[in-house]
Amino acid sequence: MPRRTRLESGLQNALSILADQFAFPTDRMRTMMAAFHEDMDRGLAGLPSSLRMLPTFADNPSGREKGDVLALDLGGSNVRLLLARLTGDGREPQVLSEKFKLEPEHVSTTGEALFGAIARFIKEFLAGRRLDGSYPLGFTFSFPLRQHSIRRGELILWTKGWTASGVEGRDVVSLLDRALEGQGVGGVRVVSLDNDTTGTQVARAYFDPACDTGCILGTGTNICYRERAARIQAPIAGYTREFMIVNMESGNFNRALPRNRYDARLDARSENPAGQWEEKMVSGKYLGELVRLAVADWTGRGLLFEGRLPGPLAGRDGLAGETISAIIADPSEDADGARAVLAGLGADGAGRDDAAAVRAIGRTVVLRAARIAAAALAAAVTKNDPGLQAAHTVAVDGSIFEKMPGFRESMRAAFGELFGARAERITLALTHDGSGLGAAIIAASTGAHSEAYYGEQ
Ligand code: GLC
Q1: Is 240:263 a contact under the CB 8 Å cutoff?
Q2: Half-sphere exposure in the Cβ direction for 246 (13 Å, CA)
Q3: Cα 342 to averaged position of ligand 1 atoms, centre (Å)
Q4: Domains and CATH numbers, the chain
Q5: Nearest CA among 28, 435, 422, 449 for reference residue 260
Q6: Among 179, 200, 212, 395, which is disulfide-ready with 119 (CB 3.0 to 4.6 Å)?
Q7: How far is the CA of 159 from the centre of ligand 1 (A)?
Q8: What pTM value is reported for the model?
Q9: Does the beta carbon of 159 sit less than 6 angstroms from any atom of ligand 1?
């Protein structure tokens, strides 16, 4: 056989092996859902479980929450600050918001540096708008939190590659309070703490009573849902409402997943080996790396790039989630668009076959991610409504859901396979930047808003 043809058939063969390695057929999705339900029950009962099932001390809002409230949204490379005016009468909240960029050293050195930077952003935000009154602040902290009340909670452990020291095991509200004091910011009182999933759910539920689930599909991934408080075994003394939102930390789910050797390799080299397995198969921080590991493997076997991995693809995280988005979005037959993206990265030696193969790998990895995400959400929604008798709105936010080509469509297709016509009962509602607004609504629901609001009228 001439070399070219041999290479082509080798590529075809490798692609079909890859499709098997990343396959997640419907019956395996159902098996995963059953395991997910078991872990939800175990977590709620306080038994060892990969789902942490963390009490949030918050429930869906009534829609009547009102006040001028600040919110701080922390969990990705940007910190978002908001001032929301909630009128409590069904009108859209007015929101002033600003993004501040965290430097890599803020998330990887010390908690002091991290919270110091955040307090400086808050100071700048207030000064820029001449806000010198006294404001309650809702704090969205998008990591696993062991909460003791609506305004106290310790970081259990970092996820998403964050490593700042001196934060794990500490109450993050105290850390923020101290940093605000250090910056001489006196008018801000942290009154509530929430996760980004919870904030997203609450922001949507402010208008939509059918919203009972929140989901993030971004840098990380996670799901929260509404549960009867009586079913939660963790200590929630003092909480009087019938329902509470539970933060599952579903990114840590680790059973019945379609794992393969690339997953194992990625996990072993991550900042948190053995943790967040589902997140490492689904979310934006990891999808590019999974693709890169497969590309590196194929290159090592002489199937791509004439056996030499281009420099920019050689190191960990050499392919970002956005790059995968751009590559798989290329509809052209000859993969010229994908080739241009690779050239833009500095991988200019990429031929058409190389680009087409990288695109095919990307599509395979992303399809599996969407199906895993769908199975996890399907499990969350059917936990207390197995026959899908009611309509459920899932408030979803995050770059993968919003921007990864084909992701939503693949999730919907998976729901169709699982539930047939009843899949229509699940609405996936993009709730863009909901976590900040949700934090403001939660803060207002604590009742701490009234002075600030009425004091200013
Ligand atoms: C990670 C965090 C979780 C958060 C999710 C999405 O999984 O542990 O708390 O909700 O990322 O940001």
Answers
A1: no
A2: 28
A3: 30
A4: 54-207+433-451 (3.30.420.40)
A5: 28
A6: 179
A7: 7
A8: 0.95
A9: yes
